Each structure stands twice: as C-alpha cells, then as structure tokens.
Amino acid sequence: MSAQNQQRCFIGLGANLSEPVAQLKRAIAALAELPASSLGKVSSLYASRPMGPQDQPDYVNAVAELHTGLTPLQLLDALQQIEQQQGRVRKAERWGPRTLDLDLLLYGNAQLHCERLTVPHYGLAEREFVLYPLQEIAADLQLPDGRSIAQLCLQVPRRGLTAIGSAHS
Q1: Gyration radius from the chain CA atoms
Q2: Does 1 have pLDDT greater than 50?
Q3: In a designed cystine with 56, which of 7, 27, 97, 118 is the match (CB 3.0 to 4.6 A)?
Q4: Measured on CA atoms in the order 32, 35, 69, 105, is the torsion positive or negative?
Q5: Which one from 98, 145, 147, 158 is the annotated catalytic residue?
Q6: Is 140 among the catalytic positions?
Q7: Domain boundaries in the chain?
Q8: Catalytic pick from 26, 49, 94, 101?
Q9: What per-residue confidence (pLDDT) applies to 169?
C-alpha cells in the first residue's frame, strides 16, 4: 500500500498486570506486524498512578505512532485482537486493572463518533499518561480541533508521571 493511502495514527498503550513492561513491549511488536501498517516512533515507557480505583498497581504507559491503510474500525478490531491475545478480559469495572489496554487516540485528522469508536479519544486532552508520551514523539502535533499537544501539556499536570525507560530495550 502506498504511503499516500496511509493515515498517521497514535495508539495509547497501558498495562498494570502480568509484567506490564513486557506486555507493552509485546504489544509494540504486534503493532509492527499489523497488515497494511508500519510502526513509527514509540515513546519512552512511563509509570503512572491508576486513574480509577487506587487499590491497584501503578500503570506502565506509552504512545506509539502507526502509519496504516486500515480503516478506523479495522484498526480498532486489530487492537482488540492484540489485547485478547495478551490476556485482556473486558470487565464491567471501568478503569480497573488490566493486562493490556490499547486505545486509538488519533486517526489522521479524522473526527469520528460511532457506537464502537470515538476519535480523537475522548480522554486524550485530560490524561497526562497520554499527553506527555505523545508530546515526546510528536511535539508539534495538533488535534483536529486545532489545539496543540504542547499547549495541552502546559494545562495538565504530570501527577507523578515518570519516564522509566525505553520501549525498545
């Protein structure tokens, strides 16, 4: 597939169960193998406090850039398949512990809202564990509504977010 038919996407990765660093590294390797896609930059790994219930382990997060010819829903299906392959079980509890969470943050400049998918991701502009890794790999990025990642980072505190190493080591 030619490069002009590909969309520049960003995927948020998070895990806090079953060796989260290893989970993220396996997920990044799986992203690199997606059909009609190529992996771009990958942020450092970051430790972050849980967003929901605090009686769970801290998270490890990262953001990956992906160039893909897959449609948004095809990409969502592929991300959910990677989650399942790595032991993700979807439970009713929101923001609970998980082996792996892959979120489609941005799909080019698309703004989509359907039953299964909202892009840009609904929490992107408020979540430090998305914004700071995203700024690391795409400092000049602007959201489809014109807000810049750099400006959003100035508005959202780090809340203890700490870089803990490379996703490639």
Answers
A1: 15
A2: no
A3: 97
A4: negative
A5: 98
A6: no
A7: 3-165
A8: 101
A9: 62
Out of 90, 103, 140, 147, the active site residue is: 103
How far CA 72 is from CA of 107, 112, 144, in Å, comes to 7, 9, 15
Catalytic residue among 88, 90, 140, 158: 88
What is the pairing mode between strands 118-119 and 112-113? antiparallel
pLDDT tens digits for range 95-154: 567 889 999 999 999 999 999 999 999 999 999 999 999 999 999 999 999 999 999 999
Q: Is 159 a catalytic residue?
A: no
User: Whole-angstrom Cα distance, residue 62 to residue 47?
Assistant: 9
CATH superfamily for domain 3-165 = 7,8-Dihydro-6-hydroxymethylpterin-pyrophosphokinase HPPK (3.30.70.560)
Residue with tokens 């592929």: 78
Convert the pLDDT of each residue in 20-64 to its tens digit. Answer: 999 999 999 999 999 999 999 999 999 999 877 778 899 999 999
Catalytic site residue 77? Answer: no
Q: Measured between alpha carbons, how far is 146 from 2 in angstroms, rounded to an integer?
A: 27
Q: How far is the C-alpha of 109 from the C-alpha of 143, rounded, in Å?
A: 7
pLDDT at 151 (0 to 100): 96
| Stated pTM of the model | 0.93
